[in-house]
Amino acid sequence: MEELFRGIAEQIASIPAVWGYLIIFLFTWLENITPPIPGDMIVVFGGYVAATGSLDLVVLVVISTMGAAAGFMCMYALGRSAGPAVLRSRLLRWIPQDPIERTTRWMTRWGLVLILINRFLAVARAVVSLLAGIARIPVPGVAVCATLSALLWTALLAVLGYFIGTEWERIVEFLGQYSRVVSAVVAAWLVWQAVRMIRRRR
Fold first, then answer.
1. Are 67 and 29 in contact (CB under 8 A)?
2. Residue-level pLDDT at 181
3. What is the pLDDT of residues 61-118, one digit of tens each?
4. Which helix (H) or strand (E) holds 3?
5. What is the pLDDT along the chain (202 residues), one digit of tens a residue?
6. CA-closest candidate to residue 29, choices 47, 42, 44, 45
7. CA-to-CA distance for 30 and 45, rounded, in angstroms?
8. How far apart are CA 44 and CA 170, in angstroms?
9. What's the confidence (pLDDT) of residue 63?
10. Cβ(60)–Cβ(158) below 8 Å
11. Which of 27, 40, 42, 54 has its Cα between 20 and 30 A from that of 176?
12. Are 68 and 31 in contact (CB under 8 A)?
C-alpha cells in the first residue's frame, strides 16, 4: 500500500498545481481520520516539488496545515458528540469507568499541551483528538493549538523536503523509524498505566 501512496505522491509533480494542493489537503485531512494514510510523506514530497518550482512552498505549508487541522477538528467533533455515549455503550461496558474518568480529568487539565504537540506523536494523533472531544475541552483553545501544532510539523516536513530535494525518501524512512519509536513509547506507557491500575485494585 505504501507503494500505491508513493505513486500518488509522485503524480503531484506532473499535474496542475491546484490539483496537487487538493491532493495534499485531502491526504493531510484523511491522515487524522484513518492514520495508515501517509500524509507526512505527501508533505515531504510536496516540499521537493516546491523546490522544482511546480508548487509554492508557503502555499504548500498553508494547505497542509489547513488539512491537518481540519482532520483533527473532525475527530474532535466526533469525540465531543459521540465519544461519551460510545464509552457508556453495552459494547464497551467491560471497560472500568474509573480509568476513563481519570483520563478525562487529565485531558481537561493538560489537554491543550498534548494537542499542541500532537502532530509530533505520530500514531497517537487520532487518539488525542478523540480524547480532547470526549473531555469537552473548549473549541477555541483546541482549534488554536491544533492549528499551531499542524503548522510547526508540516512546515518542518515541507522545508526538509525542499532543501533535501531528490533525497526526500530518506526523510520518509526516518519518519517511519520515528513513528515506530513513538509507538513503542506510547505502548510502554499504556502497559505501565495498566500495571498501576492492577496494583491499585490489589
1. yes
2. 65
3. 999 999 999 999 998 998 888 766 656 655 445 445 555 556 666 677 777 888 888 8
4. helix 2-11
5. 455 555 666 667 677 888 889 989 998 998 887 766 777 888 888 888 888 888 899 999 999 999 999 999 998 998 888 766 656 655 445 445 555 556 666 677 777 888 888 887 766 677 788 888 888 889 999 999 999 999 998 998 898 888 886 666 666 666 666 566 665 665 565 555 555 555 665 5
6. 42
7. 17
8. 10
9. 95
10. yes
11. 54
12. yes
Contact predicate 70/29, CB 8 Å: yes
Cell numbers 505549508 label which residue?
61
Instruction: Indicate whether this model's pTM tops 0.70.
Output: yes
- Give the C-alpha distances (Å, rounded to integers) separating 79 from 64, 73, 83, 114: 23, 10, 4, 16
**SS3 readout for 7-76:** HHHHHHHHCCHHHHHHHHHHHHHHHHHCCCCCHHHHHHHHHHHHHHCCCCHHHHHHHHHHHHHHHHHHHH
The dihedral through the CA atoms of 5, 116, 134, 97 has a sign that is positive
Taking phi over 0 as left and psi of -120 to 50 as alpha, with beta for the rest, 44 belongs to alpha
Question: Quick count: other Cβ atoms within 10 Å of Cβ 2?
Answer: 11
Structure-block grid coordinates of residue 85 = 455515549
Q: Which residue has the cell 504537540?
A: 117
